[in-house]
Amino acid sequence: MLTFVPTPLGNLQDITYRALSVFESARLFLCEDTRVTRHLLDLLHERGYLAALPEAEFLSFNEHNGPARLKQIADRLESEAVVYVSDAGMPAISDPGQLLVAWCQEREIPYDVLPGPSAVTVAYAASGFESGRFLFYGFLPHQGRPRREALEELLRSPWDTVLYEAPHRLEKLLEAIVQRDATRPVFAAKELSKKHQRYYRGSARELLERVRAEGAIRGEWVVVMAGASDTAAVLHPEEIEAMDLPPKVKAKLFARLLGGTVSEWYDRLVRKG
């Protein structure tokens, strides 16, 4: 049987008794990164959480080799004790484990998902936002127009939004939010459950200034943006497109709404028109 097992975000004490029991009986580990999983098991054993290291095979399973790996180990999913783990936190959420879930569902193969640590729920609980309703988006597109358009859509949403962000893109994310809505309430959590965990709460501009001043960019980040307070007052790109306005005026509106320069949008509109 295949079992999806959450692993600690950083603090080993967050491992569950149930997870340890599944580890001890596993004969095959499917891992986002086998080195990370082996290191985790070694630490659990050294500190007395795991009675003995499992006698198991370790295979990588990621977005690149997932389909091929499934063909290789398909029969074992039903006949052996198989574990899937992410590098940290809840598997199969913004994670290659989604391929395994779909495979099992399509073929009616039994599987189980254990409850455990999740950066999404920890960060939202720590944010202090009161609506209790949120959208988990995962990672934004890395750059360019897809990133600008995705962020604009989220900023228009009435729902709070939880994002994962890489440290080298955090400052650009906050800059983009400031450009669009400098007073938007934002919460950012760094290195959840680890030694250097930090919480930041304030307006987008305040957070940008603070992380710059503290040099706090390094580490793993979860960002929570408050939902838009008045979505009716926000123009959508398609509404601008339909307006009877000169291209230069439209270009200024698009640049303000989605980022980029006025000249870039003007050239795009002229070519399209």
Shape: elongated
CATH superfamily of the largest domain: Tetrapyrrole methylase, N-terminal domain
Compressed to H and E, one letter per element, the order equals EHEHEHHEHEHEHEHEEHEHHH
Distance between the termini: 58 Å
Strand order of the largest sheet: 3-2-4-1-5
CATH class of the largest domain: Alpha Beta
Tally of helical segments: 12
- How much strand content do the residues show? 15-25%
Structural class: alpha/beta
Oligomer: single chain
* Overall pLDDT confidence: 91
Poorly predicted runs are: none
> What Rg do the Cα atoms give?
22 Å
Tally of domains: 3
Please report the total strand number as a whole number: 10
Q: How does the major sheet shape up?
A: 5 strands, parallel
Helix content: 40-55%
CATH architecture of the largest domain: 3-Layer(aba) Sandwich
Supply database-style keywords:
Cobalt-precorrin-4 Transmethylase, domain 1, five-stranded parallel β-sheet, alpha/beta, Methyltransferase, Cobalt-precorrin-4 Transmethylase, Domain 2, 273 residues, five-stranded mixed β-sheet, 12 helices, 17% strand
Brief synopsis:
With 273 residues, this protein is α/β, with parallel strands linked by helices. 45% of the residues lie in helices and 17% in strands.
Walk me through what this model shows.
The strands form two sheets. Strands 3-2-4-1-5 form a five-stranded parallel β-sheet, with helices on both faces. It has a five-stranded mixed β-sheet with strand order 6-7-10-8-9. The longest helix is centred in the middle third of the chain and has 15 residues, at 167-181. The mean pLDDT is 91. The chain has helices spanning 17-25, 34-46, 66-73, 76-79, 97-107, 119-127, 144-156, 167-181, 204-214, 237-242, 247-258, 262-272, and strands at residues 2-4, 28-31, 57-60, 82-85, 111-113, 134-139, 160-165, 185-190, 198-203, 221-225. The protein has three domains: 2-113, Cobalt-precorrin-4 Transmethylase, domain 1; 119-230, Tetrapyrrole methylase, C-terminal domain (Methyltransferase, Cobalt-precorrin-4 Transmethylase, Domain 2); 235-272, no CATH class. With 273 residues, it is of the alpha/beta class. The protein is built from twelve helices and ten strands. Helix 7 packs across helix 8 and helix 11 (247-258) packs across helix 12 (262-272).
